[in-house]
Amino acid sequence: MSKDGLTLPLDVAATRPILEHIANKWTVLILSVLCTQPARFNDLKRRLDGITHKALSEALKRLERNGLVSRKVLPTQPVGVEYTITDLGCSLREPFAALYNWSLANGAALETAQRAYDTSRKNGGLAEQI
């Protein structure tokens, strides 16, 4: 086992399909919202600035299919739907919190690296083409 905790070689075939379901921005954000309390569709849409109706609908269906979210039809007029995170979905809370904290701690460093890269590409782009 390596010092970072990953066993090499990585089993990409086994993990890639799983990571494709949980490692996208909307999944992380939706589950982060639902970790605090159940929410209706429109509440989620309001809280997730920038998500389209279609993207939220598709993400919720995918999360429900994967057992990370449950959907409950409410006996209201008009009929309402509430989404709740499942125990399996809650098990992602710790890794998502670590990723969130890493993002806060390292966001400025990423931006600095991006600016340095962009500057070097602009200044050195001609030399690389020759």
UniProtKB/TrEMBL annotation:
Gene3D superfamilies per the record?
Winged helix-like DNA-binding domain superfamily/Winged helix DNA-binding domain (1.10.10.10)
Entries under CDD domains matching the protein: HTH_ARSR
Q: Which GO terms describe its molecular function?
A: DNA binding
The protein's matches in InterPro entries, at most eight in alphabetical order, are given as: ArsR-like_HTH, HTH_HxlR, WH-like_DNA-bd_sf, WH_DNA-bd_sf
**Species, as recorded:** Pseudolabrys taiwanensis
Which keywords, in A-to-Z order, does the entry hold?
A: DNA-binding, Transcription, Transcription regulation
Which ranges does the record mark as transmembrane? none
Q: What is this protein called?
A: Transcriptional regulator
- GO BP terms: regulation of DNA-templated transcription
Report the residue ranges that make up the HTH hxlR-type domain in this protein.
Answer: 8-111
A Pfam family assignment: HxlR
